[in-house]
Amino acid sequence: MMTTLLIKGGIVVNADRQFQADVLCVDGVIAQIDETICAPEDAQVIDASGQLVMPGGIDPHTHMNFPFMGTTTVDDFYSGTSAALAGGTTTIIDFVIPNPQEPLLEAYQKWRRWAESAVADYSFHVAITWWDESVRQDMKTLVEQHGVNSFKHFMAYKNAIMCDDETLVNSFRRSLELGAMPTVHAENGELVYLLQQQVKEMGITGPEGHPLSRPAMVEAEAANRAIAIADVIGVPIYVVHVSCQESADAIARARARGQRVYGEVLAGHLVIDDSVYRDPDYTQAAAHVMSPPFRPKHHQEALWTGLQSGQLHTTATDHCTFCAAQKAAGADDFAKIPNGCGGVEERMAVIWDAGVGTGRLTPSEFVAITSANAAKLFNIYPRKGLIAVGSDADLVIWDPQASRTISAKTHHSNNDFNVFEGRTVTGIPSHTISHGKVVWANGQLHVEKGAGHYIKRAAFGDNFTANATRQQQLTPTAVKR
Ligand code: DUC
Ligand code: ZN
Ligand code: ZN
Ligand code: ZN
């Protein structure tokens, strides 16, 4: 059946410009954008006057249904993508994370099955957690047959999913050959392990030990190392959840030398600081345990200026939800608290409120960092991340005047906690449209289990290189003797 939706009277905001226009969506695709469009027969019409019409958000970093640290996240793909849509995010890029020795393709198929309940579009980065010839082969199959164009490397989580340098080097080289973007969780896992033991020897076993074991320098070391490895190999690199000034500086320095390095910032790191770990209530403090941890306040300014200046590119959430009962596993040892916090529903409104609402960002810059840049960096632009004829009709109608107060009592995640609890945000979605269908309107979800599509992402082409001139400098010439 044809579905026709006309959005009338709003201001279309793309990353490059904004203009007043009506938007007609037919069968899941944007069919027409014009100053005035007359409603076709049978069209559903939304009056968007006084509101902004933006590309639906893309959260390039979530973990739904993730088995991690002895338990599994409370959000599966159904609840997690429902929450996403309620917050204006219409696409997530989640992670396939094989256990060491687990064949990549088996892990990938497992995650694809788990994601069949998704109500919004989704895609997968695949983590490289171990190395042998089969991994090399499976990376090719994933790129060429399954639309995976990015691989993730955890530089932390020793004795679990951590990559050593040998695996990083092998995988970065393979990524370059295949035209796939290597991404890193930058924390030195060896140092985290050492500091966890030292902090516990000092008698600190509560959640306040978590940030002490993962200071900014631990992140910066890994960010610098990953960037250097990528530079030598000649492959671009994307650093996930940049949380501190030192990592942001490492990225800016590399970019100033001409290297292609990209940085992602989490909504939580922009507005929450490390005082949460000193809350006397264990449940409150443990609920904020994620890695990298929330940082002393001054780091937030570095993240904002990175986004404003274009040195940092995307925003995400690392949505990875564990409830109070799961967080209780670390009551006697902070290192056993399952790492992760939510945010997939709150990201857009929190960043609008703290970014556009304060004058740090324009609405177009907001679209860039919440949608368009992720679409470009992961090669799904302009299908996603743009309001244009032929693009997917994944849209958010944004009411810049409306406010709401965030609470676990009203959010759509299965979690019993919300790290943004009590925060009142101005600027929220009145409608979310996924595939030309209204899936969120005036506080109500209208979702259909399994309606989300798996999004294949093509490999990058011939100009996929960290920096061609620098690679030429590295090309050796034998000395004739
Ligand atoms: N950090 C988290 O807090 N959770 C999931 C994995 C990660 O890197
Ligand atoms: Zn991570
Ligand atoms: Zn993550
Ligand atoms: Zn779709």
TrEMBL record:
Keyword Acetylation tagged: no
Alphabetical keyword list: Hydrolase, Metal-binding
Top-level lineage group: Bacteria
Known EC number: 3.5.2.2
Cofactors demanded by this protein: Zn(2+)
Pfam family, any one: Amidohydro_1
Record-stated family: Belongs to the metallo-dependent hydrolases superfamily. Hydantoinase/dihydropyrimidinase family.
NCBIfam families for this protein: D-hydantoinase
Record-given protein name: Dihydropyrimidinase
Protein source organism: Celerinatantimonas yamalensis
Organism phylogeny: Bacteria, Pseudomonadati, Pseudomonadota, Gammaproteobacteria, Celerinatantimonadaceae
